Amino acid sequence: MLDERRRLGHDVRDEMWDGVLHIVPPPGGAHQHFGATFLMLVGPVA
Question: Where are the domains of the chain?
Fold first, then answer.
């Protein structure tokens, strides 16, 4: 399974925490909307 994820490029968000593999799902629409809004508000100040 891990070789297939790596071959298909699906492993870019996978993380290793204390030797335990965590397969992190991609952000959803609401998450991306919040991130974009936050960036538009905070970006000019930063």
Answer: 2-42
DSSP one-letter string for 6-45: HHHTTTTT-EEETTEEE-PPPP-HHHHHHHHHHHHHHTTT
Alpha carbon of residue 43 to chain centroid: 20
CB 14 within 8 A of CB 21: yes
Output the furthest CA–CA distance in the chain (Å, rounded).
44
Model pTM score: 0.47
pLDDT digits (tens, 9 = 90+) for 30-40: 999 999 999 99
